[in-house]
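Quick one:
INPUT:
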């Protein structure tokens, strides 16, 4: 019987079964992970895109040993909301981190509603948008 142990020195091969399972459970959302002492992996579209992956948020979460919801300023997920959680050992020490794209951060409805008027003006260039003569009903 195979046995998997996640530790502070786990490699991407060690993390792969857990991270791939999370990727499938989350409907194919990109998932990244690394251990404290070794690079990890980045999975998208059911494929390992990078098996020596690390990222600034993964590293910050391991360092700070706390969950982070943020928008990275660098790396392949630059500008995309992510949520990253630490993997902890029995003593509570961060031995790694796992991150996913934070779809709740992408669809911030309150912010969208707050900026609706500005967005419509950018899209249409005028207000109201569409003009009554441009509506679908007016074109029928």
């Amino acid at each position: 019987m195979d046995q998997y142990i996640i530790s502070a020195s786990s490699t991407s091969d060690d993390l792969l079964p857990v991270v791939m399972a999370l990727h499938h459970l989350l409907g194919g959302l990109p998932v990244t992970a690394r251990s404290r002492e070794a690079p990890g992996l980045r999975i998208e579209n059911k494929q390992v895109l990078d098996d020596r992956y690390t990222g600034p948020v993964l590293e910050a979460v391991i360092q700070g040993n706390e969950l982070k919801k943020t928008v990275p300023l660098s790396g392949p997920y630059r500008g995309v909301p992510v949520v990253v959680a630490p993997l902890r050992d029995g003593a509570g020490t961060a031995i790694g981190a796992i991150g996913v794209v934070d779809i709740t951060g992408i669809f911030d409805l309150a912010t969208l509603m707050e900026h609706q008027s500005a967005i419509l003006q950018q899209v249409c260039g005028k207000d109201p948008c569409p003009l009554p003569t441009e509506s679908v009903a007016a074109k029928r």
